[in-house]
Amino acid sequence: MRYSHNLIKSNKEAREFDTVNATLLQKGVFIDQTMAGVFAFLPLGLRVLQKIEQIIREEMDTIGAEVFLPALVPTKLWEQTGRFDTVDVLFKATPANAGSAKRNDATYVLNSTHEDTVAPIAGKYMLSYRDLPFAVYQIQTKFRNEERPKSGLLRGREFRMKDLYSFHASDEDREAYYEKAKEVYVRIFDRLGLGADTVIALASGGDFTDDYSHEFQTKLDTGEDTIYHDEKEDVFYNKEVASPELQKATEGIQVSEVGNIFPLGTKFTEAAEYMYTNEDGKQQPVYMASYGIGSSRIMGVLVEKFHDDRGIIWPANVAPFTVHLVGISGGDDAVTAKAEAVYEKLTAANVEVLYDDRADVSPGEKLGDADLVGCPWRAVVSGKTGDSIEIKQRTSDAMELVTIDDLITKLT
Amino acid sequence: MRYSHNLIKSNKEAREFDTVNATLLQKGVFIDQTMAGVFAFLPLGLRVLQKIEQIIREEMDTIGAEVFLPALVPTKLWEQTGRFDTVDVLFKATPANAGSAKRNDATYVLNSTHEDTVAPIAGKYMLSYRDLPFAVYQIQTKFRNEERPKSGLLRGREFRMKDLYSFHASDEDREAYYEKAKEVYVRIFDRLGLGADTVIALASGGDFTDDYSHEFQTKLDTGEDTIYHDEKEDVFYNKEVASPELQKATEGIQVSEVGNIFPLGTKFTEAAEYMYTNEDGKQQPVYMASYGIGSSRIMGVLVEKFHDDRGIIWPANVAPFTVHLVGISGGDDAVTAKAEAVYEKLTAANVEVLYDDRADVSPGEKLGDADLVGCPWRAVVSGKTGDSIEIKQRTSDAMELVTIDDLITKLT
Question: Is B71's CB within 8 Å of A71's CB?
Answer without folding.
Answer: yes
